[in-house]
Each structure stands twice: as C-alpha cells, then as structure tokens.
Write a structure and sequence with these properties.
Helix content: 40-55%
Structural class: alpha/beta
Number of strands: 7
Number of domains: 1
Radius of gyration: 17 Å
Strand content: 5-15%
Pfam families: adh_short_C2
Order of helices and strands: EHEEHEHEHEHHHEH
Number of helices: 8
Shape: globular
CATH topology: Rossmann fold
Protein name: Cyclopentanol dehydrogenase
CATH superfamily: NAD(P)-binding Rossmann-like Domain
Distance between the termini: 25 Å
Bound molecules: nicotinamide-adenine-dinucleotide
Enzyme class: oxidoreductase
GO molecular function, one term: cyclopentanol dehydrogenase activity
EC number: 1.1.1.163
C-alpha cells in the first residue's frame, strides 16, 4: 500500500531543468524525469553525491538567487540542448535559524530566504520564458508548500514566501497563456527529505507531524514527483494557473 507507484510518461526529446535537484524532492523529480527518458538538467548550489543522481542527468552548479548565474546557466542549457520544455522551480531553504517570530528573526536569514525561495523562482522563470515563448511551448512548475495555505508557529517568512510562489505561478500562467506556456504550482505536505528531518530536529516530534496528515504519515518524494510529471505532461494540457496540494489530506483537514 505504501509502495512507489508510477505511471509511465514519455519525455523523450524533452529538456527539463530542476532547481535544487541535488537533494530531497528535487532529486526525486530528477529521477522520475530521467526514468521517463527526459534530458534532465539538475541545477544546484551543491554538487550531489554522484551515486544518487542518475547517469544521464546533467549537473550545473548555480546559485538561483543570483541573476548572472541563472542567466548563464539557462544560456548553457539552450546552447547545448537547443530547447527547454519544463522548468521545475524547487530550490528552497527552511533553515533551522528561521524558526522565530518575525521580530526575533535575523535579517540575514530573512534575506537568504527571500533570495532563494522567492527571487530564485522569479529569476529562473524570467530566464527560461524567452526561450519558451520562441518555442510557443513550455511548462513551469513552482514547488510551493502546505504552509502557503495555513499557518504554523514560527514560519512567518517561509509561509508567506510559499504563498507568493503560488501567486507567481498564477500571474505567469495568465501572462503567458496565449504563448503556449503553462504555469502551475504544487503544494506538498510534509515530505521525507533532509529539509524536513532538519526542521523536525528544530521543532521536535515526528509522530505529531505524521498524525497531522489524515493518512497518518508524511509523504515520499516520488509522490510529489508523480504529480509534477503529470502536470508537466501533455495530459495536463488544459491545466494552468492551478495549485495542486499533494499532502495526504492535510489541506482538507484544515
Ligand atoms: P532539500 O534541502 O532536501 O533540498 C533543497 C535543494 O536545494 C538542495 O539540494 C540545496 O543544495 C538546493 N539549494 C539550496 N539553495 C540553493 C541555491 N541558492 N541555488 C540552487 N540550489 C539551492 O529540500 P526539500 O525538502 O527537497 O525541499 C525542496 C522544495 O520543496 C523547497 O522549495 C521546499 O520549500 C519545498 N517543500 C518541501 C517540503 C518537505 O516536506 N520537504 C514540503 C513542502 C514544500
């Protein structure tokens, strides 16, 4: 019942960029696209362990909060592969030192989170969109969060930025709908990744977190990847501007 299930998509000849693809959800997304024969470009600030990333995944070092690096990375992808079919904006941080009420949150932590989680999504999108417009085809998928939809203690920066990731998707969806570009977002519940393991250490209590999800457990990265695979495929051709909660019922629970 709790096993990896996968619909097969054919992403042959498709070029997909996954930011933060070196770990957690991003790594799961890289693996899923690679299994579906896509050309996958993993963009990350940290080179992942070479045993984790499938052989056919191409790694580019890039700090998504930096315009110059985003622009040159996208240029390299276009020069080498000639097209960009999908961008998965996923690189994000929720550092342990961000769990404070906002009046106690250090400004440098605020700036880092805005820089990566918000500006990073914007910069990668603005750099791939000209190519997608030229192709008259493309999908951008922003990984948001359940915390975009409801509050929790001491996530006063992370939550609002994640809500902004959903609105970025809606805004871009409307802006580029006539140009063959679809933009969507996915709001995962708690997923078993290094980020969540770190935040559990900061907050304590894995069982309580699992129980908050009506299904009684946290999710797996492949369960998020499956949603992304569908949303980026032609099977979702009439879906744009939508946010999909992939959260074991957390959102329904309130
Ligand atoms: P993770 O920490 O496992 O992976 C994040 C990756 O992003 C890492 O490989 C890291 O090196 C990379 N990264 C960080 N800063 C970067 C930068 N400046 N430029 C390029 N890459 C950078 O995290 P995760 O849990 O897989 O989270 C991925 C995304 O999913 C984030 O946007 C997060 O907010 C979102 N999310 C996660 C959960 C969850 O439960 N894990 C739930 C909801 C949403």
């Amino acid at each position: 019942k709790n096993e990896k299930a996968m619909v097969r998509y054919d992403y042959s000849d498709r070029v997909v960029i996954v930011t933060g693809g070196g770990s957690g959800i991003g790594l799961g997304i890289c693996q899923a696209f690679a299994e579906s024969n896509a050309t996958v470009i993993c963009v990350d600030i940290d080179q992942p362990d070479s045993t984790e990333l499938p052989d056919q995944v191409v790694f580019y070092h890039c700090d998504v909060s930096d315009q110059e690096q985003c622009s040159s990375t996208v240029r390299k992808v276009i020069d080498r592969f000639g097209r960009i079919d999908a961008l998965i904006n996923n690189a994000g941080i929720q550092p342990a030192d961000s769990y404070h009420p906002i009046d106690e949150l250090p400004e440098n932590v605020f700036d880092r989170m805005v820089g990566i989680n918000f500006r990073g999504y914007h910069l990668m999108a603005r750099n791939v969109i000209p190519q997608m417009k030229q192709q008259q085809r493309g999908v951008i998928c922003n990984i948001a969060s359940g915390q975009a939809h409801r509050t929790a203690r001491h996530v006063g920066v992370y939550g609002p930025i994640k809500a902004a990731n959903i609105m970025q998707a809606k805004q871009w969806a409307v802006e580029y709908a006539r140009m063959g570009i679809r933009v969507v977002s996915v709001s995962p519940g708690a997923i078993d990744t290094p980020m969540v393991r770190a935040s559990l250490e900061a907050q304590g209590g894995g069982e309580a977190l699992a129980n908050r999800h009506p299904v009684g457990r946290i999710g797996r990265v492949d369960e998020v990847a499956n949603a992304v695979m569908w949303l980026c495929s032609d099977s979702a051709s009439f879906v744009t501007g939508a946010d999909l909660e992939v959260d074991g019922g957390l959102g329904a629970f309130g």
